[in-house]
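Fold Annotation — chain and its backbone
Encoding — discrete vocabulary of local shapes
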Amino acid sequence: TGHTEFAEMRDSLVEFLQLLEFDSITDNIVLLPDEALGGRRFGLVTSPHSLARIRPKADAEAATDVILGEPLFLLRQACDDFVLCHTAEGYTAYIRNSDLRRLDADAFHHRLSGRQVCVLREWASDDGATIPLGARLKWIAEDQKRITAELPCGTKVRLPIANCRVLNDAAPRE
């Protein structure tokens, strides 16, 4: 029993057990992502920081810290509060549902294509929202002093240009 993202891994395990001449092999390994997720199998972190846990419990050990705008590949709904996902760094861990925005493949592709803004210094807006170091946001526009970026929730923010680096920027700057 268990889960895997690759049919080849499941098939290799069954073949290996057969080579070891086990009398009876019952394959209950479930392929992920789970079909129950429907079309929204992708996500973006909406919290400045969220601890990705090794178990779907608030007090479980943290596997890693995910930050605002980080792309996630959702694997299965673990319980009401947590979803199992693959992080951009390759960790498989549980993230709180309240700390992510679920997207379908088209919206995920749109969100990650084109110019991106990488936040180089933590920044707090006038309304108290924190944009952490390393946050990845969708580039919208810029002028001499500020970059307009879109948060994963869709809200637009204007960040000091000195606090940001534009990625995937093929267009010349004026």
The longest helix spans residues 7-19. The longest strand covers residues 71-77. The chain has a mean pLDDT of 90.
